[in-house]
Design goal:
single chain; alpha+beta; four-stranded antiparallel beta sheet; 3 helices; 13 strands; elongated
Length: 294
């Protein structure tokens, strides 16, 4: 009978799992939600080409947006020129008002000096001096009121034109942002994978092979156009039963072998562990399975 000696040592448990190898991260590039219907692809990086972060992957024709940008820029330039003209007119009017006020104050002051000699002249001349002073005073008060009212009116008109300028500036910035969004750039270093054109068959497809998007195709807003698959980091996604789930913790070392590279062993570590089990309703086994990533 084979025998062995019992020793006290840590129990080594090996967990085996079969999984699928996939990229660590995949980001989908989506056609921007631009109004005015579908977009046309003008440039496209084909599938399998490596790109760096911020490299253009898909570019759409910006003809409509360039026309809208030209209109917004024209309105902005017109509003700015109108502001310059209004400020120049206001400065010219202020200079004229200053001269008119100076003349009116001089007339009032001369009338005051003339009335100081009323006791030495005839009564009718003295009355003329008083009337002249009253008229000059009234004219000065009316002129000051008109100048104040004109200044407030010019200020309000200038605010209206500045608001028009701000509105045109916001429109220009918004259109420029839309134009910038028509160039889909790679969010990370990786490899391009172009999506299938589901609109190629009019939206109806029943198992047939669909072509990838190509330059010249039209794309609806919100349609996924391309994937950028992260390079340099891969994941194995597998399932383990509930008995092995307790033997795994995040950060544990693991070894991965692949069918495509027999004999090669890659170092890995346990990543995300699912806390809830899942089981398809058609499975006859009662064993619960947990998702795990290496």
């Amino acid at each position: 009978v084979p025998t062995t000696s019992v020793t006290k040592s840590p129990l080594k448990l090996t967990v085996h799992a079969t999984g699928d190898l996939r990229a660590g991260r995949t980001i989908t590039l989506v056609a921007p939600p631009v109004g005015g219907g579908s977009l046309r692809i003008v440039k496209l990086v084909p599938t399998g080409v490596a790109v760096k972060k911020d490299d253009p992957v898909v570019e759409f024709v910006p003809a409509d947006q360039l026309y809208a940008l030209a209109q917004a820029q024209s309105e902005l330039a017109e509003a700015e020129q109108e502001i310059v003209k209004m400020k120049a007119d206001a400065a010219d009017q202020k200079a004229q008002d200053d001269v008119a006020l100076l003349t009116a104050r001089f007339d009032v002051r001369r009338g005051e000096l003339d009335t100081t000699a009323n006791e030495f002249i005839a009564a009718i001349d003295a009355r003329k001096n008083v009337l002249s002073l009253e008229e000059a005073t009234r004219r000065l008060a009316q002129l000051e009121e008109d100048v104040q009212s004109r200044a407030e009116t010019n200020k309000a008109s200038l605010l209206v034109v500045e608001e028009k300028r701000n509105k045109a500036l916001i429109a220009t910035q918004r259109v420029q942002q839309v134009i910038d969004s028509l160039i889909l750039r790679a969010p990370l270093d990786g490899v391009v994978s172009i999506k299938e054109n589901r609109d190629a068959a009019g939206g109806m497809f029943f198992g047939q092979q669909l072509p990838e998007y190509r330059e010249g195709d039209q794309v609806g807003p919100g349609r996924p156009v391309s994937d950028v698959i992260e390079s340099g980091r891969m994941e194995v996604r597998a399932k383990v039963d509930e008995n092995d789930r307790g033997n795994l913790t995040e950060g544990q070392k693991a070894s991965v072998t692949g069918d495509a590279l027999p004999g090669e062993v890659f170092e890995a570590k346990v990543g995300q562990l699912a806390g809830l089990a899942n089981r398809a309703f058609w499975e006859a086994s009662a064993t619960r399975l947990f998702d795990v990533t290496f």
